[in-house]
Amino acid sequence: MAAASDDEIDLGISLEKVATIVDQARAVQGDEEAELGAAADDGGDDTEEAGPDDVTEDTLRAYITELNDDEQAALIALCWVGRGDYEAGEWDEAVGLAAERNDGRDAADYLLGIDNLGDLLSEGVAAFGLSLEEIER
């Protein structure tokens, strides 16, 4: 099956941005992949992937803060879909509530307070039949 593009389903945020946030969140929150990458650092010059030291919470916070309000609401809604609070078919409702909740608040603080943020966002995207695996970063 060919990968769907974000033109087919309008999430309100590009898959490239979501993929970047997923990668950074996993590095910051220290998921298993990031920990495995850190363990490989014992050898010295193994630089296949960026390690957790290359991304800080401040970097991720700044990236999320630079997104527009619609993109921030979409990120929150994707997290909720990934967590199972909403189904893909309830997307408009989830985005609407996320926009209301985010009005005047700091989306980065909210999102960075969620454990496994990267995994939840990835699962949220998957609920729409999309994948972040083939997305250029």
Automatic annotation (TrEMBL):
UniProt xrefs under InterPro entries: DUF3775
Domain of life: Bacteria
Region spans: Disordered: 29-55
Biased composition (Acidic residues): 42-55
Protein name: DUF3775 domain-containing protein
Species assigned in the record: Falsiroseomonas algicola
